[in-house]
Sequence to fold (273 residues):
Amino acid sequence: MPHEFDTSYATDPWLTLCKNYPDSSVYPAADFRVEWGPVFHRGRLDGTARVVVIGQDPGQHESIGRRILIGEAGQRVQGFLARLGIDKSYVMVNAFLYSVYGQSGGQKHKDDPGIVSYRNQWLDPLLLNKKVQAVIALGALADRAYQAWSATQPVRAGQLAYQHITHPTQPISAGKGKPAAIAALTKTMLQNWNAALTQLHAAIKNPDRVRALVPYGSSFKPGDDVAIPEMDMPAGTPAWMRSVDAWATRSGATAAAKRATVVITVPKNAREW
Fold:
């Protein structure tokens, strides 16, 4: 059976951008996990995208899978796009190429000229493409990234439907392990998402499939998270790396060891032996 895979970086401007990515002189190692390398994007770079999603930074799943938004946040975003009838006509980039280390790293460097300049070199060809109809920013740092770009291209920005939504993992991080708090924050987040879906559903004129808008409930239900499509991943990526199962965790007895160690575990349902 043939397998689809992503071949995005073979042509310019993506080829040149991937050859000339910024290093620790732009992304300080004290605030970014530069040792795991940059993770550039996920989705269509062939000019067919209708929706651009801006995320924050790659996590441990993304560092191993080499595409952004493939963990829990990515699966929730995939489900969000599916409600809009967008199954493949999207492209995703992050505010930061490298995983943020520490709670303040992103805030500290959100306006660094080198970071902003390189990011805008991705956003220009993506967002100046007239096929793109909508932009979705996940969280405050992604919103900041879009606003920085829109200031350089105000005419084009005015033509795009834009929605800044709560980051998919915000309830988990802000809930601090307390089930009641996580449930309340999730309910609030889904209300925010439903409001954005209403605006985006009206703005996207030619989705991959036409579907009636079905809003979220007060909590995530089975099927709300959607697995990452095979076409989004590098050649040979095993299916479990794009499934809804968590398979990568940071581990270590000290902060330094935890930073340096990601444990990969094949999910039980993928162990064919």
Remarks:
- The CA atoms of residues 175 and 181 lie 5 Å apart.
- The mean pLDDT is 96.
- The chain has ten helices and seven strands.
